[in-house]
Automatic annotation (TrEMBL):
It comes from Paracoccus onubensis. CDD domains: terB_like_2. Transmembrane segments: none annotated. Pfam families: TerB. This is TerB family tellurite resistance protein. InterPro entries: DjlA_N (IPR007791), TerB-like (IPR029024). Residues 26-141 form the Co-chaperone DjlA N-terminal domain. Gene3D superfamilies: TerB-like.
Length: 153
């Protein structure tokens, strides 16, 4: 089902078109996997958090979400550099969904209860590429921390 997603994303001959919902979710999940892998430690707790995020975003069962994450892991491994990949995703997802993507990335980064410099750098890069200002990304991060009960209160 998702085997040729990369070819649809990177077809240089075609104009960027919005992705069908399942493809968009897998592309977004690939960004989440990239964040989780950015510190060279891709833990089970991170995989489970990605599954929870995917299930929550689209009303999937955890099994369906795990299948999408598995497809996203393969796509992430084959995807080009983050800049090129993110630009292709940006051209194919709705503007209003981009802040949700950044929130999901912060949530993934905190899955292991800590934020690494590599994860933060990657999220800042992706936020900028998606057109989300640093100030907005920081507000999203603070909201995620509150929602996760990690804001110190």
């Amino acid at each position: 089902m998702f085997r040729d997603l990369l070819s649809r994303l990177f077809n240089e001959d075609a104009l960027p078109r919005p992705l069908a919902s399942p493809d968009a979710e897998v592309a977004i999940a690939a960004l989440l996997v990239r964040v989780a892998r950015s510190d060279d430690h891709y833990r089970q707790v991170e995989r489970q958090r990605i599954d929870q995020i995917l299930a929550r975003r689209r009303g999937l069962s955890l099994e369906e979400a795990a299948e999408r994450r598995a497809a996203a892991e393969m796509i992430e491994a084959e995807a080009p550099d983050t800049v090129r990949f993110t630009r292709q995703v940006k051209d194919r997802i709705a503007l209003e969904d981009r802040t949700g993507v950044i929130g999901a990335m912060w949530e993934t980064a905190y899955a292991d209860s800590r934020r690494g410099a590599d994860e933060e750098t990657l999220i800042r890069l992706v936020a900028g590429l998606l057109g989300i200002p640093d100030k907005d990304s920081a507000m999203i991060r603070r909201k995620v921390l509150r929602d996760l009960g990690m804001d110190g209160s």
